[in-house]
Amino acid sequence: MSSLSDLLMVRLCLLLWLLVKSVAAPDPAVVTMTVDDAACDIGGDDWRFDCFPQGTPAQTECEARGCCWRPPLKPRPPSPSGLTVPECYFPLDYQSYRTQAVSSSRGHGQVKATLTKGSPYPRDVRNIQADFFAHSTNVLNIQIRDADRERWEVPLLHNRRHCGRGQGSAWPGHAHSGHEMGAGNVLTFGDFLVTLSKPGQPFWFQVARTTGEILIESTGGFIYSDQLLQLSTTLASSLLYGLGERRGGLAVSANWTRVALWNRDHHPKENTNLYGTHPFYIARDARGWHGVLFLSSNALDVIVQPAPALTWRTIGGIFDIYLFSGPEIWAVTRQYTEVVGRPFMPPYWALGFHLCWQRYGTANNTRATMDRLRKFGIPQDVQWNDIDYAKGARVFTTDTEKFGNQVGLAGEIHSRGMHYIIMVDCGISNNATPGTYQPYDLGRQMEIFIKDLDGQPLVGRVWPGTTVWPDFTNGQSGRYWRKIAGDFHKKVAFDGAWVDMNEISSFADGSVHGCDEKNPLDVPPYIPGIADRELYKHSICHHGRHAASSHYNVHSLYGLLEANATYHAMLSIRGKRTLVISRSSFVGQGQVSGHWSGDNSGTWHDMHMSIPAMLQMNLFGVPFTGSDICGFFLNATEELCTRWHQLGAFYVFSRNHNSDTCRPQDPGQFGPASAASTRKALLTRYTLLPYLYTLLFYSHVYGDPVARPLFFQYPDDSRTQDIDRQFMWGPALLFSPILEPKQTSVLAYFPRDVWFDFYSGRRVPRSGQVVRLPAQYDVINVHVRGGSVVPMQSPGLTTTVSRELPFWLLVALDDDGEAKGQLYVDDGESLDTYERGLYNMVKFETQKNTLWSKPEFIGYHGNMNLSNVTVFGLQDMPTDVQVNGESVIYQFYDTVLYIPQVKVSLAKPFNVTWGGSE
After folding, report:
1. What DSSP character marks residue 806?
2. What does the alpha-carbon distance between residue 424 and residue 500 come to, in Å, rounded to a whole number?
3. What whole-number distance in Å separates Cα of residue 708 and Cα of residue 730?
4. pLDDT at 158
5. What's the DSSP call for residue 225?
């Protein structure tokens, strides 16, 4: 049968069973575990929902749970994530709760249900309450909670829609918008049609568009026990993106894929949990695109199977689900970031090139690296230092004996027009002499640290030896963090912070004393498919106590909470914008920090995987993202590092960094040819920074991704669906890097559109197909889409210099001779420039051989000088070119018009006209 026929058959069978079983439902105390054979006939292997996810059960174990045990109809090998068709699966009539009451009010529907069949897991929730909230016209929130007692609920950071002073943490609220409601069990909430089970029926719900397309529909075995919550749902299609942080291709395979989410210090590797938790996906449906967020900070599995269907399985909290109706794909990301928070606006200097090495060892070695880049004319804006600057690896200290004059180093960096970022680990050493280490002494005084069962700080081990960790759910943690960071800043004027090891990572599993194996918070009855199948492996005991809850609940939130405290501490200390880069991440991370993809390796595969890693985080509302250029582990070859610098020059966050076990790999290490290639790529980046900054502004205000997969720009082109070897900046620029050794050409797909080579202006002769492009040793292919106006600027070796140089405009015409674009400009560092009107927004439009500028808002009075305009895509040479009605000199090559002496201010309206032809 086709997948549609399968879906209809399963739904018909399920509805028939619901009608039969709604006549009478047994009391959970007297449930029989006999399984009706007819209920096991579910219409194919793809619709089997696993009833025994801990392993391979015996038939008796399976049937004791009231489930079906049958070999697959078509045996298949395990998928890359280790799953295959389960032998033990839920029958059609497996219904664990019976609906008792349904009610509705304006913008709100509610179902109350009672347990009828106990789960195999301890402490089932007996009474549940399901609430359906109209968060807005296009966002629906579903919460299913214990009706009798409170449980852990994930707090979201307040949605900050500005560059500056955000709020602290808060519980999510719900705006009950007024939309028409249906009667009884069918309710209308804006874009959504919600169907609920009726009193006396098994608990069930379905959410569709008001136009009829089903988005989610509960099915399979619904479980709500204390430490195992499970909800299965049909999917509108198998085309699915998101569910991270994970390493792998861009799309999520529906071939029995398991994505385990639980923040872990684990080098990037396929099919295991990594540094972040983002249980959000974007999916295709018959009308367009929609998104789903399963908001949980507990360890969870997401299982995607070929039906198509999906199972959420988590070990704590409540069911807290957000649906985003789209239907345009860009609308989904806007709706998502409206709920979880818009990305922060970075300072302009953060857009430059960043450099670090874990083994500089001294201030002089750090300085020598900057000198080497300057010698080769390679742009650099930010110099970093790893933990080697700190005395005994204790954060917020400086080792004057070994590292040298860090104060002087920071001053020299600033004198060069650059900025300085230091590593700030979250672990605080507890082994210094009392009275000699303020971060520990003050933390003890304020009782700020995570506590063990005895009420004392829980002790683990990181770089400085034995270590304790601040509790960032403690109401005093912000004041504590500002104090210790501010006091160190008075000595060493750093501009941003690199928060690392914040999953939490500990070298002592659990604690220096281990964990309590009998404590269900440390060893729960079910553990998702995470690395090592231990919650506290390379972390701390999950019975650890925070002010808000146990570490069991807070763990995956920890990195976000530390980044939030660091971001606001730095805003307070500096009084202007800052940059925080965090390894650990969670839903809403983009509000306060960027992210890098962790401890990758210097291999071609790792280089390739850095592209989907960046694109995923952009879909999650964390646009300021990149990977360690040339890799953190292993020694990258000259060829690999050269090609990686070409790619990394166009990460949104562009940084070269590697381990203390590796040789240095900065762009000056591999000789003149490699240095020249990197210089060319980075100067191209610096030329494009006005466009990149404008994209980051739109991301900050609207939530749009900056680095985008091709399918985002061309969602109806099926050939773009799996492309993760190319990417775009916004709608205008396409990058096609070399990702394999010894290659001098690259295969690149061009969606059906007008495309020009960025460097030459030559039009790509064919679109809608794959084209082989030359790519010599010093080339990364960059193309501009016809219909775009791209603002640029003369590049300097720092953004401090380039911001004072003239702007350029690149106009790439479509087949109708039209193009559009925007430019956002402010001073690059002040807080709340958009909210306070201290910015300029200029729009550009080309029609009928004329380019117009339209200054929509002018509130900033810095450099706005435009020096030249380049036009791609002219068919004939013009006989006259005028700027504001006055003829100017110009040059014409093939189809490219170059106007070198425009000399106007972008703060004022102007027009450029090219007329006639020879």
Report:
1. P
2. 7
3. 6
4. 57
5. B
Active-site amino acid positions? 500, 503
* 907/904 Cα distance (integer angstroms): 9
Other CB atoms within 10 A of residue 509 CB: 18
CA 356 to chain centre: 23
**pLDDT tens digit sequence for 679-701:** 999 999 999 999 999 999 999 99
Beta-strand relationship, 460-462 and 585-586: unpaired
Position 387 in a domain: no
> Distance between terminal CA atoms of the chain?
64
pLDDT at position 106: 87
Q: Are residues 120 and 64 in the same domain?
A: no
Residue 742's domain spans which residues? Answer: 713-915
Q: Residue 743's domain is classified under what CATH number?
A: 2.60.40.1180
Q: How far apart are CA 361 and CA 357, in angstroms?
A: 9
In this structure, the answer to whether residues 57 and 122 fall within a common structural domain is no
Q: Distance (Å, rounded) from C-alpha 390 to C-alpha 399?
A: 5
Q: Which residues of 637-671 are buried (b: 16+ CB within 10 A; e: fewer)?
A: eebbbbbbbbbbbbbbbbbbbbbeebebbbbbbbe
The whole-number pLDDT of residue 36 equals: 77
| CA–CA distance, 471 with 827 (Å, rounded to integer) | 36
Model confidence pTM above 0.70: yes
- Which pair of structure tokens corresponds to residue 577? 């914008």
Query: Does residue 430 have a pLDDT over 50?
Result: yes
Per residue in 103-156, pLDDT (tens digit) is 998 889 999 999 999 999 999 999 999 999 999 999 999 999 999 999 999 998
What value does the mean pLDDT take over residues 492-502? Answer: 98
Confidence of residue 157 (pLDDT cuts 50, 70, 90): confident
User: Is the pLDDT higher at 176 or at 187?
Assistant: 187
Residues 887/878, Cβ–Cβ less than 8 Å: no
Place of tokens 């494009």: 688
On whether both 839 and 893 belong to a single domain, the answer is yes
Same domain, 81 and 108: no
CB neighbours of residue 862 within 10 Å: 12
Q: What is the mean pLDDT of residues 392-411?
A: 98
Domain presence at residue 376 = no
The percent helix, strand, coil of the chain (3-state, each to 5) is 20, 30, 50
